[in-house]
Amino acid sequence: MRYRGEITVFLSLTILCVMSLMLGLLESARTAGARLYLRMASDSAVSSVMSYYNRNLWDRYQLLFLEYDSEAAIQETFGRYLDFYLEQTNMYPARREKVSLSGVLRMTDEDGRWLEEEIADYMKYRVPELFASGSGLLKEAEQVKKAGDFRNLYDSCRKSGRAVRRLEKAAREVENSLLEMETCKNRFSNAASDESASALKRSARKLKKEFQDFPKPVEQFEQEIRRLEKENEESGFKTVEDETAAETLGQEISACGEVIKSAKERLQRYREAETQVERNLELLEEACGYLEMEPDTDEEDDVDWDAISQCADEMEIPESENSGPKDAKKVAALERLEELFDKELFEQLLPAGTEVSGRAVSLNGIPSAGKHETGSENTGSGAMGILETAEKELLVSKYIPLYFGSFTDGTGEADAALDYEMEYLLSGKKSDRENLKEAVNKVLMLRGSMNLLYLLNSPDKKAEAEALAAAVTAGIIPAQMAVSFLILTLWAFGEAVLDVKTLLAGGRVSFWKTDATWKTGLSGLLDQSFLGETAESGQDGRNYTEYLSCMMFLMDRGVRNFRMMDLIQWNIRMGQSDFSVASCAYQIEIEAEVMQKHMFFQKEEYRGTVHAAGSY
Prior knowledge:
Elements: H1 6-50, H2 55-61, E1 66-67, H3 71-86, E2 94-106, H4 113-126, H5 134-193, H6 197-213, H7 215-237, H8 243-290, H9 305-314, H10 328-342, H11 346-349, H12 382-403, H13 421-427, H14 432-456, H15 459-472, H16 477-504, H17 522-526, H18 544-554, H19 557-572, E3 584-596, E4 606-615
Antiparallel strand pairs: 1-3, 2-3, 3-4
Helix pairs in contact: 1-3, 4-12, 5-6, 5-7, 5-8, 5-9, 5-12, 5-14, 5-16, 5-18, 6-8, 7-8, 8-9, 8-16, 12-18, 13-14, 13-18, 13-19, 14-16, 15-16
């Protein structure tokens, strides 16, 4: 009996095909699993690397950053954790070939953006009540922005008003010179008529001096015109969004423009007067020649009095238009007030018996000493972008008082480089005293700007300022308007002095003034009796620390962030001498190349690449 093998061969071939298909499917599944395993291994490895965050930084500031010695150290640590998974006996055999660090986001990158991100992530859980209403965040940002608008207006009104005052003073000097020349010329003419040689000599000396000195006040007047033009031009470049501030700034710029126009017309008259004065000087020299003497000598001889009288008659003194201010006492009081505010008021603002900290640091090698980007803030788009920006900035401003001290907090921590840390954030000086002085001056300016807002919305007080401006100017309407703005800024500044004294004493001052909270009268301002007053602290309002936070809301975010890094680095180095914020990473990106093997294919190793990123 003969056996046939067709079925056996067929089944063998079928089994071979089925097995090949099944093993192919199994290898395909294993390969997919290997990719997932490799992804899991790399993610786990990078998470392990990120677990090496700086404990000192977390304990003190609640900030998570990976401090690393070098990029090679990060690669080595990642590779060590990745190898743990690759060395396991399983269905995914592989070995590490190469690890490279493809990207690092450091604390110092992008103007400290990643420091802001860490702060915002932490503060969302620390103060969740801030997120009860998005409109509340926008309202807070709007109030601080309004304060910035009025600070620009305050600076503009004060600078331009003082420039107008200097211009008027220079004009009075010229007009007074013309009046003095007229007086001296009359004396000279009378001496010639009386044929008194001694009187003629005295008057000639005086008149010559007035003629020779006349160009000096004219030149000063022209310089003051140029200065006012510059101040007015700079005011035109200021951008304010608040309607009241914009309207007032426009009025002030317009008034100064009219003053400049009028002053240039007057300057033209003064230049023509200079030509006449030069002619008068020639006539005086001619008259002195007839007297056969120089005004600076005492020689006498035969005198041709008729010729001298004729020279005197030919002299023409330009007419003076100097009406002068109506109230000289108020002019003097206003000038004394300006001189007072030009002086340093720092010591007068501090509470009695205050001992200012003497701590100081070196500014060499700190993060803020290097160059950094400015204006790189991502403001987003639309209402949501504005809300997100306001949210982040507000969270940072709320974080700062929690972890950085200020003057009203008392003595700073023993392991802190400076006592007045918030003041350093605002000022960036090397000593506590310098930082406190500059921060106090900035708060003083902020309070002055907000007080100006109240005055501009108070018809009675505006009328008082306008009446005083009319009394201290020469009656020129545009000048009166500009000077009235100056008086309002001085008045606002006087009230700000009381406000800051209250804040430094630990009290509170309302951000927006009312009739009930306003303390300083215009009469008390002029006689400076307001300096002896003690402002009462209200129950409502903001304290000193909150005002510093408002100021930080207005400052450049990059400068603020880098100064925060200065303080962080100084303070962490008290316990860890080699700490550096430049070596603190917020996020790392790693690329690993591995060699993998097939289990069911007889092929050589194949190369695989995996990307992993870790952040806090």
